[in-house]
Design goal:
The complex is a heterodimer of chains A (226) and B (466). Chain A has 226 residues and is an alpha/beta fold. Chain A has 9 helices and 12 strands. In chain A, the strands form 3 sheets. A 5-stranded parallel β-sheet of chain A has the order 2-1-3-4-5, with helices on both faces. A 4-stranded antiparallel β-sheet of chain A has the order 6-7-8-9, covered by helices on one side. The chains are: A alpha/beta (226), B alpha+beta (466).
C-alpha cells in the first residue's frame, strides 16, 4: 500500500517507516502539518497516518481540511493523548482510527492494513468465506464443511469481524473496540478467552485451523485455509 | 507604623463611623432644637392669645384706664408676661417693658415677632437687653398694647444643645482616634501573626498552624479555614511521600527487571536465539505493563484534578453491567467461579461509559485474583448486583474469598498499595482500586468495603439521573 506518514519526531518516523517498508508498503514521510497536507491533497495514498501534535498545522486540522476537500482517504491518528474524549475528538475531526502512543508496532500495522483494505465490497457482502467456512450474515448461520456450527451471538460477531479482515492481523484492542464497543484496558486476556472459545467451535473438530494466533500481535483468519 | 495604620480597614471604619455619627448627632440636635423652639413659640403664642382673651373679657368696652390698671397689676406679678401700652407717640404708659426694639409689627396681633427689649427695673439702674416673642394689638386712637414673653430661656436651652453637640462630636472624634489606634494596632498585630506563620509555612514548614483565638471572630474563622487547608496540604504532602516510597519499589522493580534482561541480551547469549527472543518479548511485556501503570496514574491524576474534565452522558447501568459481565463471563468461568447476577433493575444515570467499564473490569479482576476462597472447599462465587435507592444507584461486587482485614481497608485505595500476601506473587500494579476510587469520586459517588463473611463486598453508590 502507499502510505503517507505525517510525523515530526524523526526517530518515531524512522521506526514506523522502516516497519511499514518491511511489511512491503511504500511510505512517504512529511515532517510538519503543512507539508503533510500538501502531500495528502496530491492524493494517491491508501492510508494516511497523522500525528496529532505537529508543527505548522496540527493533525486534527489537517484531517479536517482533507475532509472538507472531499478526500475520503482513510486516516489513522497517532497521539500521546489517550483519554476517551481525545479519541472522540480525533474521530469527529474526520479520522477513521485512533492509536495512542506508545503503541506496539504490530498494533499500528494491523490497523493500517485494516484501514487500507478496500472494505466496501466486504461490507455489503452477505456471505463471508474463509476456506471451507461460510458465514451467512443475513441468516445468521455459520457452516464449515457443510456442517452448521452453533455460535453464540457474541461469537458470531467476533467471527464476523475476523472474517471481514481475513488475511489481516486483528489485535485484541481492535476486537474489544469493534465487537464490544469498549476502549478501556482490561488488564487481563479477556478477549483471548472469547477467541479460544470461538476457536474451539470452528477449528477443533476440523483438520485445518482457520483461526491463527499471531504472536505478539493478535489473531488472523487465514483466508486460504481449508 | 503610623502610615500602615492609616491604610487599615480599622482606620477607614473609624472615619466612616465618625462621619456617620456626627451627621446623625447633628441632625438629631438640630431637630430637637427646632422642635423645642417651635414648642416654646407655640406655648408663648398660646399664652399671649389667652392673655388677650382674658383682658378683652375683663375690659369689654376697651376702657383704656381700666386696661392700663389691669396691665400694671399683672406686670408685677411673679412670672408675669411682658406688657407695654404705648400712646400714638410711642411713649410707655403701662407695663413692665422699658424699651422695645423698633419692629415692623402689625398691630393686629396676627404676627408674632422676636424683639429685643429691656425690662423696667424697679430699683433703677441699667437693665440688660433680652429677647422676647411679642404681639402687638391696636387699642384704638393710636394706642397699642404689646404682649409677649421672654425667650431667653429658650435661647439658653438652644445654646446648651449646641454646646452639647460640639462636645459630643469632639468626644466622638477623640474616641474614633483612640479606637482606631487601638483596634488598628490589634488588627495589624493579628495580620502580622498570620503573615509570619504563612511565611514559615511557605518556606517549607508545613506543620505550622495559624493561632486561633477564643473569640470566634472573623480572624479566628479565617485562621481555622487556613489551618484546614494546611492540614490537607500536609496530608497530600505525606501521601506524596508515601507514593514516592511506593513508586520507589513498584516502578523500580519492573525497570530493574528490564534492565537485567537488556544486560543479559547485551552480554550476548548469542547461541540461544530462542531465549533471546523470549527475553525480548518479556521486555516488551514489562514495558507494556509500565505503560499501563503510567496510563492508570495519569488517569487517576486527571480525575483528581477535577471532574469537569470528564464527559458524562446518560447511561443505562443495567446494559453496561450486562455488557461487561458478558465480556468477562468466559474468563470468570475459566477461573472456576460461579457467577451470580441480580441485574433486574433498570437504572439510568449520568456517567462516563468507559470509566465505569474500567471500574467494573478492575473490580472483577480483583475478585478473580484475590477473591478465591483459601480455606475449606467452598466454590468461588462472584456476585454482581444492581439496585436503586432513593437517590443513588447501588452496584455491589461480592466474593466469598479471604476478604480484607479491617486494618487494611483504608489503605487499599491508596496508590501502589498491594497487601502483603499478594506482593511478589501475583501480577498487578497496585493501582486497580485507586483507579476505582478515583472513578467513583469523579461521579460524585461513594464506595464502601464490607465483610461478606466470608469474603469481601464492595458497594458503590452513584447519584442517579435527576
Amino acid at each position: 500500500m502507499r502510505i503517507l506518514l505525517v510525523e515530526d519526531d524523526h526517530e518515531a518516523a524512522d521506526y514506523i517507516a522502516k516497519g511499514l517498508s518491511e511489511a512491503n508498503h511504500v511510505v512517504r514521510h512529511a515532517a510538519d502539518g503543512n507539508q503533510g497536507l500538501d502531500e495528502a491533497l496530491e492524493g494517491g495514498f491508501d492510508v494516511i497516518i497523522v500525528d496529532r501534535m505537529l508543527p505548522k498545522k496540527d493533525g486534527l486540522s489537517l484531517v479536517e481540511v482533507l475532509r472538507s476537500e472531499n478526500d475520503q482517504t482513510p486516516v489513522l491518528i497517532l497521539s500521546a493523548l489517550g483519554q476517551v474524549d481525545d479519541r472522540v475528538r480525533g474521530l469527529r475531526a474526520g479520522g477513521d482510527d485512533y492509536l495512542t502512543k506508545p503503541f506496539a508496532f504490530s498494533e499500528l500495522l494491523a490497523r493500517v492494513e485494516a484501514l487500507g483494505r478496500r472494505v466496501l465490497p466486504i461490507e455489503a457482502a452477505t456471505i463471508l468465506r474463509a476456506g471451507d467456512l461460510e458465514m451467512d450474515r443475513l441468516a445468521h448461520k455459520v457452516t464449515r464443511g457443510g456442517i452448521e456450527l452453533g455460535l453464540q451471538p457474541r461469537e458470531f460477531k467476533l467471527l464476523e469481524y475476523l472474517l471481514k479482515h481475513a488475511g489481516q492481523v486483528v489485535t485484541r484492542t481492535m476486537l474489544l473496540e469493534a465487537v464490544w464497543g469498549y476502549h478501556f484496558d482490561p488488564q487481563t486476556n479477556v478477549v483471548d478467552v472469547h477467541v479460544s472459545r470461538l476457536r474451539s467451535k470452528i477449528d477443533r473438530d476440523f483438520d485445518k485451523p482457520i483461526l491463527q494466533t499471531v504472536r505478539g500481535a493478535g489473531y488472523m483468519i487465514d483466508a486460504d485455509a481449508g | 507604623m503610623l502610615v500602615r495604620l492609616f491604610r487599615t480597614t480599622a482606620f477607614r471604619l473609624a472615619v466612616l463611623y465618625l462621619v456617620v455619627f456626627s451627621l446623625l448627632a447633628a441632625i438629631a440636635f438640630l431637630y430637637v432644637g427646632a422642635v423645642t423652639r417651635e414648642v416654646v413659640n407655640q406655648e408663648i403664642d398660646q399664652e399671649i392669645t389667652e392673655e388677650i382673651a382674658t383682658l378683652r373679657r375683663l375690659v369689654p368696652d376697651r376702657n383704656l384706664a381700666r386696661l392700663a390698671y389691669l396691665v400694671e397689676a399683672r406686670s408685677w406679678r411673679p412670672g408675669a408676661s411682658l406688657y407695654l401700652i404705648t400712646n400714638s407717640y410711642g411713649e410707655p404708659l403701662a407695663g413692665n417693658v422699658g424699651w422695645v426694639q423698633e419692629a415692623t409689627l402689625e398691630p393686629d396681633g396676627s404676627q408674632a415677632a422676636v424683639v429685643s427689649y429691656t425690662q423696667v427695673n424697679p430699683t433703677g439702674g441699667v437693665a440688660t437687653e433680652r429677647s422676647a416673642r411679642v404681639r402687638l394689638y391696636a387699642l384704638g386712637q393710636g394706642f397699642t398694647l404689646l404682649i409677649g414673653r421672654d425667650i431667653g430661656e429658650r435661647d439658653a436651652l438652644q445654646r446648651a444643645l449646641d454646646d452639647a453637640l460640639k462636645l459630643i462630636v469632639f468626644g466622638l472624634l477623640l474616641l474614633a482616634v483612640i479606637s482606631w489606634f487601638i483596634l488598628g494596632r490589634a488588627v495589624l498585630r493579628r495580620v502580622d501573626e498570620v503573615a509570619a506563620t504563612s511565611k514559615a509555612i511557605a518556606d517549607g514548614d508545613l506543620s505550622r498552624r495559624l493561632p486561633v483565638g477564643k473569640s470566634g471572630d472573623e480572624f479566628d474563622r479565617l485562621a481555622e479555614s487556613l489551618n484546614r487547608i494546611l492540614d490537607r496540604l500536609l496530608a497530600l504532602g505525606t501521601s506524596l511521600e508515601e507514593v514516592s516510597a511506593n513508586i520507589g519499589h513498584d516502578l523500580r522493580t519492573p525497570l530493574m527487571r528490564m534492565r537485567h534482561r537488556l544486560e543479559k541480551i547485551k552480554t550476548g547469549v548469542e547461541n540461544d536465539v530462542a531465549t533471546s527472543r523470549d527475553d525480548v518479548e518479556a521486555l516488551i511485556d514489562e514495558s507494556d505493563q509500565l505503560i499501563r501503570l503510567f496510563d492508570s496514574l495519569l488517569m487517576i491524576a486527571r480525575m483528581q484534578a477535577g471532574s469537569s474534565q470528564i464527559s458524562l452522558e446518560p447511561i443505562d447501568l443495567k446494559v453496561l453491567l450486562s455488557d461487561v459481565i458478558e465480556l468477562y463471563e468466559p474468563l470468570i468461568t475459566d477461573h472456576g467461579f460461579d457467577l451470580n447476577l441480580a441485574l433486574d433493575t433498570e437504572v439510568n444515570l449520568h456517567a462516563n461509559r468507559e470509566l465505569l467499564a474500567q471500574l467494573l473490569s478492575n473490580l472483577i479482576d480483583n475478585v478473580l485474583k484475590y477473591g478465591c476462597p483459601t480455606e475449606g472447599d467452598r466454590k468461588p462465587v462472584l456476585t454482581l448486583t444492581l439496585s436503586a435507592e432513593k437517590e443513588n444507584a447501588l452496584i455491589t461486587v461480592c466474593d466469598n474469598g479471604p476478604g480484607i482485614a479491617e486494618a487494611d481497608k483504608k489503605r487499599v485505595f491508596d496508590r501502589f498499595v498491594r497487601l502483603e500476601e499478594s506482593r511478589g506473587t501475583k501480577p498487578g500494579t497496585g493501582l486497580g482500586l485507586s483507579l476505582v476510587w478515583a472513578i467513583v469520586a469523579v461521579h460524585n459517588g461513594r464506595i464502601e468495603l464490607q465483610n461478606a463473611d466470608p469474603g469481601l463486598r464492595i458497594v458503590i453508590s452513584l447519584p442517579l439521573l435527576r
